[in-house]
Amino acid sequence: MRTLHVAEASPEAAVLVDGAVVAAVGPYEELAAADPAARVRRWPGILTPGLLNPYGPEILEGTYHPDPREADRLGTVPIGGERARVIFRADPSLLGGSARRGVQRLLAHGTVAVAGELRSRPVLDAVRGVGLASGRRPPRLPGPVSLTPSPLVLLPPLAVGGPARFAIFDVADRADLVRRGPATCVATVIGGRLVFRAR
Fold first, then answer.
1. Strands, E assignment, 80-128
2. CATH code of the domain containing 186
3. What is the pTM of this model?
């Protein structure tokens, strides 16, 4: 069944998804009239092509994302630097679970692609498992390593026949997204699948 995604603040940029690809992009009213049988998903805010996070290796291989069951011992905030290296040296098997949790954090920030060379098999498996795309790092990296890099790197516009990969942010417009940041993400779609939805 086809799915029509529309966001309240950007009804002119609705997306009709057929499986893993974009079947149509355009005003909601036109797409709904052309395919009345499509299931409709309505979202607050704006629908965008999603974000590229240029810090793939740093976030997924150089940062430990604690398991919630470790909160009493390690807290809930991602751990970087030497402390992360010590954790991975002590138990290399922790990298896979950490990478999966890191990927979930990226998805919750509207990230649909990462840049940087990933070398670890468990990390590559976590990235491929959800279908995150790989992109090129910008010539100049935007500040420190972050789930919310500034400036944001938006992907090119969605195209018919292209991958159904996009994100929805609960903001008024792109300027508001820049101001408030990608933690405003309410949904991330990759390969036509809803891989993140805010509660």
1. 111-115
2. 2.30.40.10
3. 0.94
> Does residue 26 sit in the same domain as residue 63?
no
The CA-atom distances, in angstroms, between 74 and each of 57, 83, 97, 98, 192 are 21, 11, 15, 13, 35
Locate 5 and state its tokens.
Answer: 């995604």
- Per-residue tokens: 54: 């240029």
Which residue range forms the structural domain that includes residue 66? 52-135
User: Cα separations (Å) of 57 from 64, 99, 191?
Assistant: 12, 10, 22
CA 169/CA 175 separation, integer angstroms:
12
* Cα(176)–Cα(143) distance, integer angstroms: 20
Residues 87 and 105 in one domain: yes
Q: Which residue has the tokens 């979930």?
A: 104
Predicted confidence (pLDDT) per residue in 122-174, tens digit = 999 999 999 999 988 888 887 788 988 888 888 999 999 999 999 999 999 99
| Residue 96 and residue 58 in one domain | yes
Quote the Cα angle for 105-106-110, to 5°.
120
Contact 103, 78 (CB under 8 A): no
